[in-house]
């Protein structure tokens, strides 16, 4: 697969140059119940990104891009859980309601689902780690990925950084991500780290998309 060279620039080009096409993939990161209000590991205001995500899905479908969704899919005894000595409360256990995608997410039929963190003794924070995501992108001949979802400092950041390492042009859509922000600037620091590594920071207007939000 011929991979795109990474860019170190923020979007100063015309929106048409960032528009998705058949060599693009929109990657939805962990839009699961446990990461939304009421979930066991809720990200504050995470529900506010769903209208943006849904508009992105429709826009990317219109342009022929692939839609791929990652999910935490933990066994009950995963090492990241506090019961096993890990840092997090139990969440996204395989087959549980918390592991299901949010009911308001308009995930298209046939979207590729990538299950991660399935190995009990291994903690991961990237959609590429221990999954076949890279192979799926190669099968689609995708050269650009656009990343949305939860949470900015963890799975979003590491998925973006791993995409860049693979040589993919990697765009993080800032209006459709949310961070935990244990410290107030954690999300912004993560975004800066992504940009320094070569990610393109963008919003809907940068890719030529209008958002008719209520």
Give your account of this protein's structure:
With 214 residues, the chain is α/β, with parallel strands linked by helices. The chain has a single domain (33-207), classed as Isochorismatase-like (Rossmann fold, 3-Layer(aba) Sandwich), CATH 3.40.50. Helix content is 21%, strand content 18%. It is built from four helices and six strands. A six-stranded parallel beta sheet has the order 3-2-1-4-5-6, with helices on both faces. Helix 3 runs parallel beside helix 4 (186-197). It is globular and about 50 Å long. The model is unreliable at 1-11 (pLDDT under 50).
Key attributes of the depicted protein:
single chain; 214 residues; alpha/beta; Rossmann fold; six-stranded parallel β-sheet; 21% helix; globular; disordered N terminus
Task: Kindly state the percentage of residues in helix.
Answer: 10-25%
Averaged pLDDT, please?
A: 92
H and E order: EHEEHEHEHE
Given as residue ranges, the uncertain stretches (5+ residues, pLDDT < 50) are 1-11
Proportion of β residues?
A: 15-25%
Largest sheet: 6 strands, parallel
CATH class: Alpha Beta
Computed over alpha carbons, the radius of gyration is 16 Å
- CATH overall fold name: Rossmann fold
- The main sheet orders its strands as 3-2-1-4-5-6
Q: Please identify, by name, the CATH architecture.
A: 3-Layer(aba) Sandwich
The helix tally amounts to: 4
Give the count of structural domains: 1
CATH-level-4 superfamily name:
Isochorismatase-like
Could you tell me how far the N terminus lies from the C terminus, measured between alpha carbons in angstroms?
A: 41 Å
């Amino acid at each position: 697969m011929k991979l795109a060279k990474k860019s170190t620039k923020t979007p100063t080009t015309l929106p048409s140059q960032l528009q998705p096409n058949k060599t693009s993939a929109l990657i939805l990161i962990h839009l699961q119940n446990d990461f939304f209000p009421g979930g066991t590991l809720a990200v504050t205001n995470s529900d506010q990104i769903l209208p943006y995500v849904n508009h992105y899905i429709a826009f990317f479908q219109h342009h022929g891009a692939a839609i791929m969704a990652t999910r935490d899919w933990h066994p009950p005894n995963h090492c990241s859980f506090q019961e096993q000595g890990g840092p997090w409360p139990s969440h996204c256990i395989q087959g549980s309601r918390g592991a299901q995608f949010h009911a308001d997410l308009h995930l298209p039929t046939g979207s590729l689902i990538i299950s991660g963190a399935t190995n009990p003794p291994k903690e991961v924070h990237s959609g590429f780690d221990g999954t076949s995501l890279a192979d799926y992108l190669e099968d689609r001949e995708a050269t650009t990925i656009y990343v949305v979802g939860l949470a900015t400092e963890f799975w979003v950041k590491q998925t973006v950084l791993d995409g860049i390492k693979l040589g993919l042009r990697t765009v993080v859509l800032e209006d459709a991500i949310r961070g935990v922000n244990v410290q107030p600037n954690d999300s912004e620091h993560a975004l800066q780290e992504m940009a320094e590594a070569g990610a393109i920071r963008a919003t809907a207007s940068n890719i030529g998309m209008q958002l008719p939000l209520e």
